[in-house]
């Protein structure tokens, strides 16, 4: 595996960082955060779309820029460093599913506007009784008058309240050869769609989504025929792995930002006539945090490389996501301790990364869930 980025990818990362330094400050992060903000930043969103962030990873044949998964990971890492709103993650998730399963008509209807920054989207999959097992989902789609009628409830739907459409994962009422699984694009303003905001530690946008006899046209189901069944399920799982791996490098970007800020603070803060960063005990803490982040970063690139090469990556993704989640959370805990009283004052920005660390760890499977998955895999 080659973990070194190319010169072009390094330049892409630097350009992305410079863009965010100009366009997105910690004051903007505070302004966008709930409960006072909407959780979304329209001006930044259009700048990211203009810079090609939303179209980078899609092939030119569908109107994208033809970049690789590694290219996408480079900008996602910078998004994590700068705490870009999570609408980026949820919209990319929806876009990848559209690309994997959409017909040409569906790509024109939803994916191309998404790549231009004209459409926000998210994915609703978790249910109270089945977070990661589509076979146990209770949300049900039934054929009705040439279209579909959907009923059910989803929880922890990211950014649903600001998204234009939600891709809902459903069981499908058995009809002849229909395999019983489907993904449906549901407009947020469709009659019967109800949202209830959920309070979260990370102050991110999470909603409970209720679908009460929501009527959809025949083109709302992604794919057609066999594409709506076992193949759709395998592609759904593949995209889930991609999103988990991308989230791992997003967390690495955030963790590195915490380490960089803490290093600057330790160099500027003096005690007993010298920078507190010169004390050996402080250096031990920083070294432990840096080693954990570097190890998680290598695991993240390993998972992404295997996914980009169409190699099995279930184990590597689990290692990447669990190690990045722990490294990010532990880096913020160490930083709060080393900052002393300032680390616990909301006037400082450190808590912004701490909140994101907790929220990102839970997204697309928590560290604990992936560790258990690894244990089950190896019968530990």
Tell me about this structure:
Belongs to the acyl-CoA dehydrogenase family. Residues 123-214 form the Acyl-CoA oxidase/dehydrogenase middle domain. With 380 residues, the chain is of the alpha+beta class. The chain folds into three domains: 7-120, Orthogonal Bundle (Butyryl-Coa Dehydrogenase, subunit A, domain 1); 123-230, Beta Barrel (Butyryl-CoA Dehydrogenase, subunit A, domain 2), CATH 2.40.110.10; 233-377, Butyryl-CoA Dehydrogenase, subunit A, domain 3, CATH 1.20.140. The chain has eleven helices and nine strands. The chain has helices spanning 7-23, 26-32, 42-50, 69-82, 87-101, 104-115, 230-268, 280-308, 314-339, 350-362, 367-377; strands at residues 121-124, 140-144, 147-158, 165-172, 181-187, 193-197, 206-216, 270-271, 274-275. Strands 1, 2, 3, 4, 5, 6 and 7 form a seven-stranded mixed β-sheet that branches. A two-stranded antiparallel sheet has the order 8-9. Helix 1 (7-23) packs parallel to helix 4. The protein is globular and about 80 Å long. The model has no long low-confidence stretch (mean pLDDT 92).
Report a brief summary of the structure:
Helix content is 51%, strand content 15%. The protein has 11 helices and 9 strands. Helix 4 crosses helix 7, helix 5 (87-101) packs antiparallel against helix 7 (230-268) and helix 9 runs antiparallel to helix 10 (350-362).
């Amino acid at each position: 595996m080659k973990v070194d980025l190319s010169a072009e990818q390094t330049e892409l990362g630097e350009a992305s960082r410079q863009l965010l330094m100009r366009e997105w400050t910690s004051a903007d992060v505070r302004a966008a955060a709930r409960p006072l903000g909407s959780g979304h930043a329209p001006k930044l969103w259009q700048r990211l779309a203009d810079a090609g962030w939303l179209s980078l990873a899609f092939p030119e044949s569908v109107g994208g820029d033809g970049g690789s998964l590694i290219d996408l990971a480079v900008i996602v890492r910078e998004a994590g460093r700068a705490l870009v709103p999570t609408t980026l993650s949820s919209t990319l998730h929806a876009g990848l599913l559209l690309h994997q399963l959409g017909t040409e008509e569906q790509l024109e209807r939803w994916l191309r506007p998404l790549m231009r920054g004209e459409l926000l989207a998210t994915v609703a999959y978790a249910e109270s009784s089945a977070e990661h097992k589509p076979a146990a989902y209770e949300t049900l789609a039934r054929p009705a008058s040439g279209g579909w009628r959907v009923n059910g409830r989803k929880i922890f739907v990211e950014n649903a309240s600001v998204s234009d459409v939600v891709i809902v994962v459903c069981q499908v009422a058995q009809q002849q050869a229909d395999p019983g699984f489907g993904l449906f694009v549901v407009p947020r303003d469709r009659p019967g769609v109800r949202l209830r905001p959920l309070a979260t530690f990370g102050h991110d946008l999470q909603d409970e989504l209720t679908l009460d006899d929501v009527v959809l046209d025949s083109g709302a189901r992604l794919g057609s025929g066999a594409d709506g069944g076992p193949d759709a399920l395998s592609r759904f799982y593949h995209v889930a792995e991609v999103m988990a791996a991308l989230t791992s490098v997003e967390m690495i970007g955030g963790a590195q930002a915490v380490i960089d800020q803490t290093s600057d603070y330790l160099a500027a803060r003096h005690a007993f006539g010298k920078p507190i960063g010169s004390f050996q005990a402080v250096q031990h803490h920083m070294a432990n945090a840096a080693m954990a982040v570097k190890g998680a970063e290598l695991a993240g690139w390993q998972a992404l490389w295997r996914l980009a090469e169409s190699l099995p990556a279930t184990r590597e993704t689990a290692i990447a996501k669990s190690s990045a989640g722990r490294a990010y959370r532990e880096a913020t805990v160490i930083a709060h301790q080393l900052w002393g009283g300032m680390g616990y004052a909301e006037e400082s920005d450190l808590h912004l990364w701490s909140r994101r660390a907790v929220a990102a760890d839970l997204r697309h499977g928590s560290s604990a869930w992936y560790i258990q998955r690894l244990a089950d895999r190896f019968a530990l």
